[in-house]
Amino acid sequence: MSNESPSSVKKKILVLGAGLVSKPGVTYLLKNNFRVMVASRTVSKAENLVRGFDNGTARQLNVKDVDALENLIKEHDIIVSLLPWVHHLKVANLCIKNNKHMATTSYVSEGMKELDEPARSKGLLFLNEIGVDPGIDHMSAMKIIDDVYEQGGKVVHFYSYCGGLPAPEDNDNPFGYKFSWSPKGVVLASRSPAKYLENGKIVEIEGKDLFLNKRVETIEGLGEFEVYPNRDSMPYKDLYGLKDAETVMRGTYRNIGWCDTFKKIVDLGLVDDTPRENLKGITYKQMMAGLVGAAENEDVIEKTAAKAGLAKDSEVIQRLEWLGLFSDENVPDCDNCLDILSARLLERLYYKEGERDMLILQHKFTVENKDKSRDLITSTMIDFGIPGGDTSMARTVSLPLAIGVKLMAEGKINLTGVQIPKIKPVYEPVLEELERLNIKLEEKRFPLK
Fold first, then answer.
1. What sign does the dihedral 105-107-113-115 (CA atoms) show?
2. For 136-257+353-387+440-448, which CATH class?
3. How far is the CA of 433 from the CAs of 25, 162, 382, 400, 415, in angstroms?
4. Cβ atoms within 10 A of the Cβ of 103, count?
5. What DSSP state is assigned to residue 111?
6. Pairing with 405, which of 56, 67, 101, 446 sits 20 to 30 Å away (CA)?
7. What contacts 24+ positions apart, CB below 8 Å, involve 309-316?
């Protein structure tokens, strides 16, 4: 018979997925004495996450087995989905059916929005977008926006940029980038259209022109980075209550050279996912010859440069050559260029043992104060991975999620329905706890003429 009173009994948490960002969050929940089950298709990955903790268990689960999934959901109080976003709705519907709260780091999809009313009617909280981007970006922005409004001011211009990159000492390849998981999502983002508000005008960019719209930003202590627009920034005007804003733009940081290179990669057809019969058993050089229309006796590099409108010795062509796209190696067994490129990027742009990643997040606000004077406010997070330990990406994605889940389990978030962490009772305790875990933003304010 347990001596614990019902209020002191720790909640049971089910974590679905044991991917590369899961570990810091799972460890945090285990150290806070919650009973945590990690369920994964590869049970050894789940076992690695709970090893050494009596309050952690691992379970093999194929998410396609709906009955097995539902049985696990029934046994737990809060369901954390770190699965690919396409599975969230299946999990969410089972949570509604079985009266369970849910948390994810993913963007709220249209399908998830439709579950707002069913979740509210059952008193359930589905907390989404509580990672880094989205997540820490929402919370740190709203902290400043709320403060500006409380002091009678208004936000006139708002820029928010984020990016995961190699730490400067490990930035040792021509692309200035390394992947800590499958690069396909990063490559697919290179085809996404973008939309933002700047100086009162709506700017719309077609996917094929995304990288023509780069700008250069300086981060104190780190130097210059490229920024390109991140999808549709327009919803954030309402989402963040920026009613007076003439500018609302979100963007992605990359090292210098990325945008020019990826613009040409897109132009050359390397991110095309149309299935092709003629890719079986050929070399990279033959694939490139096919893409640029080079005859058998032609110089493929020269033809590629001409098709891309570049000099043969340009940095972009040198990067493609370094990647091995003109080599006599055979391409992997894929039926489209996108998958072949993604596999090659993963082979060449990876973190070696002991290397660390870096995450940069910066907001820039131009605010008009109550007395009509104007200030520039910056809020900057520069976070590094731990050599031989957790990556910055894993920490900044899964720790906000785990802190949010802890608050949910302790009954400290008085919300129901489909929510994101944009209100003070959520963002204040999460940002405070992140700071205790050494993930923090530095705010600076400068008067503007």
1. negative
2. alpha beta
3. 13, 21, 17, 9, 20
4. 25
5. H
6. 67
7. 310/264, 315/174, 315/257, 315/260, 315/261, 316/257, 316/260, 316/261, 316/264
Q: Is 133 known to be catalytic?
A: yes
Cβ-contact 223, 216 below 8 angstroms: no
Q: Per-residue DSSP letters for 190-211?
A: TT--EEEEETTEEEEE-GGGGG
Question: Could you tell me which CATH number the domain at 1-133+388-439 has?
Answer: 3.40.50.720
Tell me the domain boundaries of the chain.
1-133+388-439, 136-257+353-387+440-448, 262-348
DSSP H helical ranges for 370-445: 392-409, 424-436
**Residue owning tokens 């599975």:** 87
User: What residues form DSSP beta bridges with 132?
Assistant: 135
Parallel/antiparallel/unpaired status of strands 201-205 and 194-198:
antiparallel
CA-wise closest residue to 408 among 387, 426, 390 = 426
Instruction: Count Cβ atoms below 10 Å from residue 15 Cβ, excluding itself.
Output: 30
Helix (H, G, I), strand (E, B) or coil at 212: helix
Q: Which H helix or E strand runs over 25? A: helix 23-31
Q: Do domains 1-133+388-439 and 262-348 have the same CATH topology?
A: no
* Whether 246 contacts 200, CB under 8 Å: yes
pLDDT per residue of the chain (449 residues) written in tens, 0 to 9: 334 334 446 899 999 999 889 999 999 999 999 999 999 999 999 999 999 999 999 999 999 999 999 999 999 999 999 998 899 999 999 999 999 999 999 999 999 999 999 999 999 999 999 999 999 999 999 999 999 999 999 999 999 999 999 999 999 999 999 987 778 888 888 888 999 999 999 999 999 899 998 999 999 999 999 999 999 999 999 999 999 999 999 999 999 999 999 999 999 999 999 999 899 999 999 999 999 999 988 999 999 999 999 999 999 999 999 999 999 999 999 999 999 999 999 999 999 999 999 999 999 999 999 999 999 999 999 999 998 899 999 999 999 999 999 999 999 999 999 999 999 999 999 999 999 999 999 999 999 98
- What lies within 8 Å, CB to CB, of 293 at 6+ separation is 303, 307
Q: Domain 262-348 falls in which CATH fold?
A: Domain 3, Saccharopine reductase (1.10.1870)
**What is the bridge-based pairing of β-strands 223-229 and 101-104?**
unpaired
Within 211-254, residue ranges assigned H as helices are: 235-239
Identified catalytic residue from 133, 170, 339, 383: 133
